[in-house]
Amino acid sequence: MFRKNYLYLSVVILFFSSPSFSTEFIVPEDLKTFNSSTYNALPLSVEADYLLKQNGNITKLLDESLAIANKYGIEEYFGFRLAHRHHDLSENEVMVEQFENLSTGPALITSVKKETSTEERTPASWLYTSSGLKVFEYSTDPQVKELYNKLMFNTSFFEEIRQVSLRLQLDQILAPAILGRQHFQHFNAEQPLYEQINAGIYASILINKPVEEIEKEKMIGGLIQTSWGLSSHKFPILCVTHCRYSDAEYRFHEYYHN
Prior knowledge:
By secondary structure, the protein is α+β, with helices and mostly antiparallel strands.
């Protein structure tokens, strides 16, 4: 029992200690800076999910952030992602999302890339740190690029969102993110989006999955919501994405929840 409480306290101290920004406002340069050490310090998805459930303020965050996003006209494409890692990155590596047509259907594949790789990528989500924003993940989607270019001139939006996240103690658990994707036109809007992990190629693969299969997964456990759109009534919004536990993460889940 002592070990269990000690481990939980350690996780809480690490991820609920909110950073102090060195400047009052977020600058455009913050929106495009990636740091592999920051990424590697993120919790596993099941750890982050545990912290989120313990916090209990996500509904307040979404409601208040929607009001802010409305002012900037981006509520249909913006939201939050669960700040978590699946892989450890080397110093010169980044996480990049790309669209592919697989034999099973359309997919958004987020995988490890070298910083020097040649694909045209755009920051799509961010992490709050003591030195400002750091990029969480990149995307090659055209809609992400369009909205990112707009936000470059409205960094005050991120500062407003940060203040709300900080007050609700969610700034270290949820990452502000551009969730709209032009590539969603290839997906089935009637089916949930499902994230599965391929450890062999260090990638997470986002696909459509029939509702009945999602419900079966829920019954046996092991599904975590990893994205929340601010405007849930309009597709495309990554608001029902789920992440399947890896074996290691499932052991963490068993330890804390059984």
